[in-house]
Amino acid sequence: MATLARAASVHPVPPRRSFRAGLLTAVLLLPASLWYLVLLVVPLAIVVVMSFGTPSRIGGFDPVFSLDNYSQAFERSTPFVTSLVMAIAGTVLCLVTALPLAYFIATRAGRRKSLLIVLLIVPFWTSFLIRTYAWLTILGPDGLAGFIGDLIGDPAFRILGTPAAVLLGLVYGYLPLMVFPIYVTMERMDRGLVEASKDLGAGRLATFRQITLPITLPGLITGSILVFIPLMGEYVIPAILGYGRVFLVGNQLVLQFLEARNWPEGAARAVVLILIMLVSVTFYIWFSNRGRKGREVSVL
Amino acid sequence: MSATAGVAATPATRGRPRRDRFGDLVEGWLRGHTLLVYSFLYIPIIVVVVFSFNATNRRVTDWQGFSLRWYESVLSDTVVQGALLNSLIVASSTAIIATIFGTMAALGLQRAPRWFRTPFEALTFISIIVPEIVIALSTLVFFSSAFDVLNPLLDLRLRLGFQTIIAAHALFNISLVMLLVRARLSGMDRTHVEASYDLFATPWRTFRQITFPQLMPAIVAGGLLSFTFSFDDYVITTFVSGAGSTTLPLYVFGTIRKGVTPATNAVAAVMLLITLSVLLVGQFLVWRNARRAGQRGAQASVAGMIAEQSG
Amino acid sequence: MAQDEIERTIRRMAQAPLSRRGFMHATTLSASAAFLAACGAKSGASASAGAPASAAASVEASTAASAAPSTGAVSGDIEKELFMYNWGDYVDPENIEAFKAKFGVTKFTYDTFASNDELLTKLQGGAIGQWDVSAPTAEFVPAMRDQKFIQKIDFTKVPNAKYIEATFKGVWWDPTNEWQLPKDWGTTGITLRTKVVKEEVKTWKQFFEVAPKYSGRIVAVDSPGDVFVAPLKSLGYSLNTKVPAELEEAGKILLAFAPHVLALDSDQYNTKIATEEAVMGLTWTGGILELRDDPETADTVYRIPEDGTLFWLDTWVILADAPHPNAAHAFLNFIHEPEVQAKETVTNQYATPNSEAKKFVDKKMLDDPAIFVPDDVLARLEGAEDTSTDPIRLDIWEEFKSKIGQA
Q1: B192/A contact by beta carbon, under 8 A
Q2: Which residue, B119, C133, C165, C386, is the most exposed by fewest CB within 10 angstroms?
């Protein structure tokens, strides 16, 4: 009994050797694993098989083995670079916007915390498309662009169809994905630590840098990943707010899968994209976890 | 959105005049920033609602007077209502599935050995990395092939429809919830959990009374985000939906070609009304519960368990 | 023996373009082949007998199933349900209610897609047997027929088809008139705000010449099939050409044109023209007619270019393995009852191919050359072929799209 108690206090979970513990772990992980297996691994296997095929005359593909698609995927890679720039810019903007907001809600909002959090997401329960079209009105010649145009005397002044409009739309669409993870970690932070730090004479900035930031780092990283990755595949917002002038890798994929019905080339491009992202994200996480010691092996 | 006065007062009580002003500046900036962000989020909403009252039957931005005709039209349009209902069903189911399985996975992953954890985490990433159109198309191919095999074999009549949409949505959302809960777990205070085990509480009891309350914000956040993602999804839903399972985004996209009429705005406004009312009710319930359970913190649970042990 | 069977099937499948069904059988066969290889000759005898048998059975089942759709129209009572898969808002709701009332159909579902590509991709992905009726654009009918996505229409059940004008019968996309029933038609043309654009723009050639002057204020529909029409016609070529040299020439024109384009937009081009964000457009007629009627934007004109353009036709088809074939046929017949069809025409603002229905359409619409193109002009227009998978066109299109608005 005593040994068990001691063991329990060192490892917060029951010892691995216990069969029941192992069973519990398996049961906990079973549903998600099943989902991944059936709805992720299998479809992806299909994609990989597709990527080695050749497009048939009427769309779809022939199961004729070919590596052409991969060489094609590496040509015409400008959209990839554009996407990278937009995705990084969008993520940074989201971060800068979300951080103070999350901090305010977590530490200053008191009882209204949950209300504010939910209010953050209520707009997203009206159709995304309708809201984006509302931006067309707001930023269009009848709205902001017209207003500014009159102000500076340039009738051809335009906001829509520029990268700025796209970035605005991206931040608008992805902000909650950044705020929620950050909020979730900040809210857990023990305020006592901050108080102690200040009592010991540390300035605001130092406190923030050495206490708040490290504790909320997992949230920051999760938020960045949750925003950056989908941004790389985004195509609707650039199509509507960017007037299609900002041609991203997502647009390229849609063109190939949908318009051209060239599944093999689309599949090859997707595989390349996925691999690149997987490598970068892994590197990013490893890099940000380098300085962290402790039980947590990864941020996730 | 007024901040609680108590926290802001802390710097002032320290008696350093220079810090005071700076502190106030920071507070002011925080508040201003928050206000700005919420305005940013709600301006399009306001525009949408305002123009839903537009009497015009042409371009939605061509104001022709105030009218409720679009609301009448929406309330009598069974196609739109059907789409809305479908969206709600799909989104709620997805949120429930994702929240439960995602949280379970987050908890289980902590205890899992390295050889399992690494590929599992890789899969989590991949599920988020895969561009929607790619997973959508390949999932469709998978479903149709699977049905072609299973239907004659087991004499079933599996088809594309709600189940396939929910299943496809749940993939991304399970990962989402899992990431959120893990982020929360990593910053969690372990001492209470350890204490609980020291007192020989079962894992379930520990979870229910210690871990779960602390994970609540992450779980709720995950649930909300899952619902939202599922509700608004277009690409995946397009590909794996079947007859009669058109959701609201699909309907809106389909009609956009005929022009954005105030009818679509009215639909959005109605959605807003519904969610805000649900919110108010929910907020009231939560407030009531919080008041009742207010004093029950982690200490109380541990104290309670101690009392039981000795009693 | 089993080995030959498999080899023959593989060879047969390697020659046919792959559909989702074919893919499924490829995997089944390869799995069976792997199975065979894994279990040696003797000991695997029973296993190998099982695997190819199921593979052969599934192949047979698929050929049987694909043969069936052509005789899909089962005689009998009209079912109580109808599943439609169509463009958004493309059938007058009152007509739907009338149909339901007349035939006692209690469940009429209307699912929407936003483009022909979406419809095709979904069917190719395997969503067959889900819906009854759809309305693709005519040039996709041959592809759908070849891939067995649609079934022959039993016109004994659709007597109202006799009202379809001769112009729309026996056309290349359905020479035997068995696979589709025309729905409505229109053109792709030039839209101008004559208040701003004072130059004469009556041909595609002039369109491209004038374009640089209004750089950044030109809009085009996001459809390669339509956009390619302009340069090809300005050069005097067929808009369906596959000749590489001709396409290259057209590509040059397009790439020179790209920097002047404001946006490729199939949904909101009329709004952009209304606000004068765009003053020139390569567009369809959707929304333009309303602009014409509005006093503020009455200077908008829609022109059918004199150097030629395409006319498009949307067609009703009955999908393969339709769950309710009788109801589907009844609907097709119903929608072409003259008065019902006339209502469709007025609601959708597209021309009808139904000669009898025209009698019930008001004169103003009938006389509008933008909607009901005069016969002599119509005779000069070309019908579009499905060139969507032509690699040269796709290359040019992708480059064009990525260079929109770049200096």
Answers
A1: no
A2: B119
pLDDT band at C9 (very low <50, low <70, confident <90, very high): very low
Q: Based on the structure, what is the number of domains in chain B?
A: 1
For residues C360 and C275, the answer to whether their CB atoms sit within 8 Å is no
Q: How far is CA B261 from the centre of its chain?
A: 29
For an interface test with C, give the residue of B51, B79, B149, B151 to mutate (most C CBs within 10 A): B79
Q: What CATH number does the domain containing B180 carry?
A: 1.10.3720.10
Global pTM value: 0.77
d(CA C333, CA C73): 14
| CATH 3.40.190.10 segments of chain C | 80-184+313-370, 189-308+385-402
Interface B:C, Cβ pairs < 8 A = 107
Q: Is B141 on the interface with C (CB under 8 A)?
A: yes
Radius of gyration of chain A measured on its C-alpha atoms? 24
Domain presence at residue B22: no
Residues of B in contact with A21 (CB under 8 A): 111, 203
Domain C189-308+385-402 class?
A: alpha beta
Chain-chain contact of B180 with A33 (C-beta, under 8 angstroms): no
| C267 vs C279: CA distance, rounded Å | 16
| Residue B62 within any structural domain of the chain | no
Distance CA B200, CA A216 (A): 32
CATH number of A79-229: 1.10.3720.10
Work out whether the CA dihedral B109, B112, B114, B115 comes out positive or negative.
Answer: negative
- Out of C118, C130, C290, closest to residue B242 by CB: C130
**Would you tell me the crossing angle of helices C325-335 and C338-348 to the nearest 10 degrees?**
80
Is B140 in contact with C290 (Cβ distance < 8 A)?
no
**Alpha-carbon C87 to chain mean position:** 10
pLDDT in tens, A12-60: 554 445 777 788 889 999 999 999 999 999 999 998 988 888 776 555 6
Contacts of A57 in chain C (CB under 8 A): 17, 389
CB pair distance less than 8 Å for B145 and C27? yes
Which residue is it, tokens 């040509």? A75
Closest partner CB to C87 (pick from B61, B244, B254): B254
Residue B17 has pLDDT above 80, yes or no: no
Q: Where are the domains of chain A?
A: 79-229
Q: Is the confidence at residue C33, as pLDDT, over 70?
A: no
DSSP B25-75: HHHHHHHHHHHHHHHHHHHHHHHHHHHTTB--SS-TTS---B--HHHHHHH
A176 alpha carbon, distance to own chain's centre: 10
Other beta carbons within 10 Å of B170: 25
Instruction: Give the number of C-alpha atoms closer than 13 A to the C-alpha of residue B290, restricted to the C-beta side.
Output: 11
Tell me how far apart the alpha carbons of residues B38 and A172 are, in angstroms, rounded to a whole number.
11
Looking at domain C80-184+313-370, which of 3.30.479.30, 3.40.190.10, 3.40.50.300, 3.30.70.330 is its CATH number? 3.40.190.10
B132 touches chain C (CB under 8 A): no
Nearest to B125 among A135, A250, A278 (CB): A278
Q: How many CB atoms lie within 10 A of CB B208?
A: 13
Q: Whole domain around residue B289: which residue ranges?
A: 78-310
B27 contacts in chain A (CB < 8 Å) = 108
Which of C61, C112, C121 is facing B251, going by the closest CB pair?
C112
* A28 reaches C (C-beta below 8 A): no
Q: Which of C102, C302, C98 is nearest to C187 (CA)?
A: C302
B222-255 pLDDT, tens per residue?
888 888 889 888 889 988 988 888 888 888 877 7
Residue A129 pLDDT more than 70?
A: yes
Element (H, E) at C170: none
Closest chain C CA to residue B235: C118
Hey, is the C-beta of C136 within 8 angstroms of any chain A C-beta?
Answer: no
